[in-house]
């Protein structure tokens, strides 16, 4: 999502605390610290799993094994082959009356050893199985016999009822790719967007890098990969997110859309409860390969605390309140009573009390949250001031389970002007008014006055699929489990014994007012410069694309290349986010979608002399190339995270690499991301359209570029979210949206040859309606 902006904007300020002559000392220290952080996280998870009884396995399995051994012993069978007798000999002799106790203790010790050995064997076998990625390389929509066998074995070794973190101890580590292969792929990726002179110069720099520096930098990465859980993820979090000094608003947040409020807070807290008990099922890629669940740990009770040079993520084990903002005032709302989690009706009652509270905002309070949009170093210094003057209020906000903003204005889709209302809805979620979101919190639940709602999510702690999974659960729980009474209230009864929501007071001096005003002015400038455009594409969806035996994501990516070329008249580096959660603590990798094959296809589409058959052949080549890049990225063989890590090592070692410096000065004028629908079985878009998440978006990665996200809603609709900057004379989100719609129809028409009702590739447009003529046939 928003990571493309951060990835191209990070700057390093590394210092060495070792002797200058020993340039490797800081690097070895950093690797050591990285490994220690990894082991600390693993020990914490291990202890939590012990406490919850899910690791190394369920205690019931041990009891079953112990009972079976005792039964065999009672039947005068010795499953230990004499080992229990040897164990009894080693135990103290307590006399004849304790003979049975010694036998039971020996059986328990043998059962524990056998239990541990079996579990260890299962984990090792499962890790070996999960290291297999051959299934990724198979043609789209097919499954070979070896893959079917592999899948059956994975299911056998996974157990009957795996929990959220059941696979964490068996996931393989992300491999470090070959540096020669990474450089080769990089040169291949930039060839379509560079002139011959620039490409030749880049190739020279790459050759010098491989000859002089690559082997040393690669050695350090290999060393880190052996010691730490993941060779790149902790650096990605630190240098791309936490060391960025830019405003979080637009730059490091994204939004998710939905409709209706009511039970949302209660549903979110139910999700947190299930998360703490590991009752959420682990995510399976293509319903067969488990993904890393580490990012789920920081959804709730998490705040990004600003620092002068580097932020840090503060996560609490638990929090029994949410922080609420309404009309410039802050409140603390407890989420639990002595009987447990408050009912939806009780939470509604508390929110209504806040809405009915007529008290005005205190001086400096109304726009205080604008400080969280300031540059991070500035906010870090001001936060110390705020903490000194109003420590309790700040702790309440930062220690909340999450932040809730009760907006006084309506938002969402309207029948009178659906296009403009969706655009305004997206803009309100992404930026708000600049002072009504606490952007440091892991996420803010935004509830508008007409009941519409959405999320604004800070990006550093996790990626979009994690918050998306939580959001889908929230909407499904509200729709199918909680519901509303006939009068529109949450079901249940109010609780008059609940105390009033606690008003937070910020005793701040007048001299902080200029700082707040300056931060608010900067936030409004940033917000006013963002152009958001959301449009649903309903001519066809993923079902049509699958009938063409193509990957829906690759289909969209090629259509985006065509649309962008028509919009700008040139090709550019394209950033598509792909997940690497096949590996322990994996996050994302970049798919460079603007390939030579994609460019050949686009040029053919714009060439009147090319036939549909020629364009279709080039399109399939482009799609196959994109699928290969996507699979390579997912299997840890991408380009950008490896080059990023090599660059970090070079900076630690104070080595100047013109090649790596050039790589990380590139601008991504087209940043794209697909929002996955992970629980589509929960929804019927036709019967419950108001409960389906319509995706979300993020800001552009470049001042003259676009940010595009898309989501497949059901089988027959795709929703696009486009952003750009109004200050750029080269971009227009609405114009690109029209090119995307035309491009999709033109690409689809390649599969309609011979049909009477079809949209020609050249695009016949009705001037009055502005829509494509004809209809798409289901024949491919």
TrEMBL record:
Carnitine O-palmitoyltransferase N-terminal domain ranges (all copies): 1-47
UniProt-annotated location(s): Mitochondrion outer membrane
SUPFAM superfamilies noted in UniProt: CoA-dependent acyltransferases
Domain spans labelled Choline/carnitine acyltransferase: 175-741
Location of the active site: 459
InterPro entries attached to this UniProt entry: Carn_acyl_trans, CAT-like_dom_sf, Cho/carn_acyl_trans, Cho/carn_acyl_trans_2, CPT_N
EC class of the enzyme, as a word: transferase
Family membership: Belongs to the carnitine/choline acetyltransferase family.
The protein's name: carnitine O-palmitoyltransferase
Organism of derivation: Chrysochloris asiatica (Cape golden mole)
Name of encoding gene: CPT1C
């Amino acid at each position: 999502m928003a990571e493309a902006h951060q990835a191209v904007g990070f700057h390093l300020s590394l210092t060495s605390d070792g002797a200058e002559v020993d340039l490797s000392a800081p690097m070895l220290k950093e690797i050591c610290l990285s490994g220690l952080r990894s082991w600390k996280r693993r020990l914490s998870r291990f202890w939590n799993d012990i406490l919850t009884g899910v690791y190394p396995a369920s205690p019931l399995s041990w009891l079953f094994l112990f009972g079976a051994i005792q039964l065999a012993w009672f039947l005068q069978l010795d499953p230990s082959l004499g080992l229990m007798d040897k164990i009894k000999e080693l135990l103290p002799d307590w006399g004849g009356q304790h003979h049975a106790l010694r036998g039971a203790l020996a059986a328990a010790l043998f059962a524990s050893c056998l239990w541990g050995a079996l579990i260890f064997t299962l984990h090792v076998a499962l890790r070996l199985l999960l290291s297999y990625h051959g299934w990724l390389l198979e043609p789209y929509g097919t499954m070979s016999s070896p893959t079917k066998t592999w899948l059956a074995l994975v299911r056998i070794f996974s157990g009957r009822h795996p929990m959220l973190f059941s696979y964490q101890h068996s996931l393989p580590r992300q491999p470090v790719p070959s540096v020669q292969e990474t450089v080769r792929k990089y040169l291949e990726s930039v060839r379509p967007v560079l002139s011959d002179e620039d490409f030749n110069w880049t190739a020279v720099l790459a050759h010098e890098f491989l000859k002089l520096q690559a082997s040393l930098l690669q050695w350090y990465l290999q060393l880190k990969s052996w010691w730490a859980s993941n060779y790149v993820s902790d650096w990605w979090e630190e240098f791309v997110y936490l060391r960025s000094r830019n405003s979080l608003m637009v730059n490091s947040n994204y939004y998710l859309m939905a409709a209706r409020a009511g039970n949302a807070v209660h549903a979110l807290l139910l999700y947190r409860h299930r998360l703490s008990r590991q009752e959420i099922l682990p995510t399976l890629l293509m319903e067969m390969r488990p993904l890393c669940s580490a990012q789920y740990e920081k959804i709730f009770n998490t705040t990004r605390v600003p620092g002068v040079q580097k932020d840090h993520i503060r996560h609490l084990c638990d929090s029994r309140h949410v922080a609420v903002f309404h009309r410039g005032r802050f409140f603390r709302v407890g989420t639990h009573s002595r009987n447990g989690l408050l009912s939806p009706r009780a939470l509604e009652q508390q929110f209504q009390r806040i809405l009915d509270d007529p008290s005005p905002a205190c001086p400096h309070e109304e726009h205080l949250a604008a400080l969280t949009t300031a540059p991070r170093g500035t906010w870090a210094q001001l936060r110390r001031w705020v903490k000194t003057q109003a420590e309790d209020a700040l702790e309440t906000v930062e220690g909340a389970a999450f932040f809730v903003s009760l907006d006084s204005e309506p938002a969402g889709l309207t029948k009178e002007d659906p296009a403009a209302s969706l655009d305004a809805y997206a803009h309100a979620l992404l930026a708000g008014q600049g002072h009504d979101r606490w952007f440091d919190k892991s996420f803010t639940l935004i509830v508008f006055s007409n009941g519409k709602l959405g999320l604004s999510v800070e990006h550093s702690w996790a990626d979009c699929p994690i918050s998306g999974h939580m959001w889908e659960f929230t909407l499904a729980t509200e729709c199918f489990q909680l519901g509303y009474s006939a009068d529109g209230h949450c079901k249940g009864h109010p609780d008059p014994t609940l105390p009033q929501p606690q008003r937070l007071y910020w005793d701040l001096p007048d001299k902080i007012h200029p700082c707040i005003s300056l931060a608010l002015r900067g936030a409004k400038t940033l917000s006013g410069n963002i152009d958001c455009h959301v449009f649903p594409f309903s001519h066809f969806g993923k079902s049509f694309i699958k009938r063409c035996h193509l990957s829906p994501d690759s289909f969209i990516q090629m259509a985006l290349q065509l649309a962008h070329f028509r919009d700008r008249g040139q090709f550019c580096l394209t950033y598509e986010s792909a997940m690497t959660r096949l590996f322990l603590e994996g996050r994302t990798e970049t798919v460079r979608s603007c390939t030579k094959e994609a460019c050949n296809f686009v040029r053919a589409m714009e060439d009147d002399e090319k036939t549909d058959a020629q364009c279709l052949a080039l399109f399939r080549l482009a799609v196959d190339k994109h699928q290969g890049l996507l699979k390579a990225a997912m299997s840890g063989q991408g380009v950008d995270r490896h080059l990023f890590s090599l660059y970090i090592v070079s900076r630690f070692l104070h080595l100047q690499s013109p090649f790596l410096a050039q790589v990380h000065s590139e601008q991504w004028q087209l940043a794209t991301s697909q929002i996955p629908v992970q629980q589509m079985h929960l929804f019927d878009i036709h019967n419950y359209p108001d409960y389906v998440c319509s995706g979300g978006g993020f800001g552009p990665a470049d001042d003259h570029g676009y940010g595009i996200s898309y989501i497949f809603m059901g089988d027959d609709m795709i929703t696009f979210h486009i952003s750009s900057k109004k200050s750029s004379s080269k971009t227009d989100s609405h114009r690109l949206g029209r090119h995307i719609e035309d491009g999709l129809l033109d690409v689809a028409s390649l599969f309609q040859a011979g049909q009477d009702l079809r949209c020609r590739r050249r695009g016949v447009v009705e001037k009055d309606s502005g829509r494509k003529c004809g209809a798409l046939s289901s024949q491919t």
